[in-house]
Amino acid sequence: MTTMTTRTRRSLQRVGLVLGLLAGTVFSFAPVLWMLSSSFKPNTQIFEFPPRLITESFTFSAYASIFGDPEKIRFFINSYVVAGSVTLLTLFVAILAAYAFSRFEFPFKRSLNVVIVSVQAVPPITLLIPYFGLVVALGLYNTYPGLILTYMVFTLPYAIIMMTGYFNTIPRELDEAVRVDGAGSWTALWRVLVPISVPGIVSVGVYTFMIAWNEYLFALTLTKTTDMRTVPIGIQLLMGQHSYEWNEMMAMSILGSIPVLVLFLFFQRYFIGGLASGAVKS
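RESULT FIELD:
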């Protein structure tokens, strides 16, 4: 009797777990599926009632409008330039900083650690006006460097913390052996630690790219001309004074989601492994 009760309880737990996962999947995926469906509908049928996931008036007009408009293509180019530059620069600086924090002792090391964590804890919106004034004063308003340097302020703290934690999991004997053989710290970093740390570097890179690609507030504030706008701003510009191009908004959202989705799917194994390893020691 006890065995049957235990089996029944376990079966109910499994059924409950499966139902919970299914409900979570539907809740998470349904908006994306509806967005994808809406991107293939004429704008006049977006709010038809009763709503239909598959419409008879299937059309690529929204995507044709985006790919046929150089101004909208420019949104994607800007996002790729900014997000790619932020990712590469953040990784380079974070690797150097994390190597110093992990392997060396120097004055104010703990104070700098506190500063890095503190910057990570500050809500970005509170820095909007100060950064706007600073960017304008430096002559970087409505430029790539203005956006890139601003984004790096928010991506670097996390990147340094994660890379330091990852380097801390690697035995010091590895890079010390390289230095014993006559090589310098620079060689030990790039020929030993960096190749071993690929999972951590990938996880930080994907996270950094996602932050820079999806950022809206600073991209809106620090740019003024259409040729400098990024994808999130481009989607907002489709909201006209008298009408909204809902199907184009959905299409641009789908196209804007693809780079992040591809990166995550391609580097998923490294991403999860890097996050777990970087969280072991920090």
